[in-house]
UniProtKB/TrEMBL annotation:
GO terms for molecular function: DNA binding. The modification 4-aspartylphosphate is found at residue 55. Keywords: DNA-binding, Phosphoprotein, Transcription, Transcription regulation. This is Response regulator transcription factor. One of its GO terms (biological process) is phosphorelay signal transduction system. It comes from Amycolatopsis carbonis. InterPro entries: CheY-like_superfamily, NreC/VraR/RcsB-like_REC, Sig_transdc_resp-reg_C-effctor, Sig_transdc_resp-reg_receiver, Tscrpt_reg_LuxR_C, WalR-like. The lineage of its organism: Bacteria, Bacillati, Actinomycetota, Actinomycetes, Pseudonocardiales.
Length: 222
């Protein structure tokens, strides 16, 4: 299956580099390029790509606001956002994850890792494994202004679901969770789906952010 991609970055050379990388790799199709967030939102609405690769800092509408608009639009529910940044600790990136981005990478990530990340996100998983993601969560999640989750929703989480959520927060896939808990992959998937519904998370990345915010998972500093 071909993964369709929109590239959003205010630097034309960066977009060109990503385009060349993706177009020389089987299974990818770049369907649009945007120089700012507003264009990215418009292209997402027009093409409904599998993934928008989104820069954070762009003139006009930045990547954070563009991510919010895309993830808040029910018509774009199947569009994933993968944030790229030059900053390894950036509160804007954390807010992008809160807003529904499926993960983020640094711009100096090796090409093979970018391709892997796109495949992971397109498959419906969240890109949560990089240490920098955990650093962001650890850095910002403890601040009172970030604890916005409904405490009633937290109380509905069962002990088993807490266990599953801890593994999701550790970056484990459904298959890996199933192997660790000695359950079927379908059962692991069901647990994750139920937790997302209870907490009100759009996808696995937002689920993990909300889990840290609620205290269901404890952030560790690295």
């Amino acid at each position: 299956m071909t993964i369709t991609v929109v590239l959003a970055d205010d630097q034309a050379l960066v977009r060109a580099g990503f385009r060349v990388l993706l177009e020389t790799e089987d299974g990818f199709d770049v369907v649009g390029e945007a120089g700012d967030g507003a264009q990215a939102v418009a292209l997402a609405a027009e093409h409904k790509p599998d993934i928008v690769v989104m820069d954070v800092r762009m003139p006009g509408t930045d990547g954070l606001e563009a991510t919010r608009r895309i993830t808040a639009d029910p018509a774009l529910a199947d569009v994933k956002v993968l944030v790229l940044t030059t900053f390894d600790v950036d509160e804007y990136v954390y807010e992008a994850l809160r807003s529904g981005a499926s993960g983020f990478l640094l711009k100096d990530t090796e090409p093979v890792e970018l391709l892997r990340a796109l495949r992971v996100v397109a498959a419906g998983e969240a890109l949560l494994a990089p240490t920098v993601t955990r650093r962001l969560i650890s850095e910002f999640v403890g601040r009172p202004e970030h604890r916005r989750i409904d405490t009633a929703a937290v109380k509905e989480i069962t002990d088993r679901e807490r266990e599953v959520l801890g593994l999701v927060a550790g970056g484990l896939s459904n298959d890996e969770i199933a192997a660790q808990l000695v359950i079927s992959t379908a059962t692991a998937r069901t647990h994750v789906s139920r937790i997302m519904t209870k907490i009100g998370a759009r996808d696995r990345a937002q689920l993990v952010v909300l889990a840290y915010e609620s205290g269901l998972v404890t952030a560790r500093r690295h």
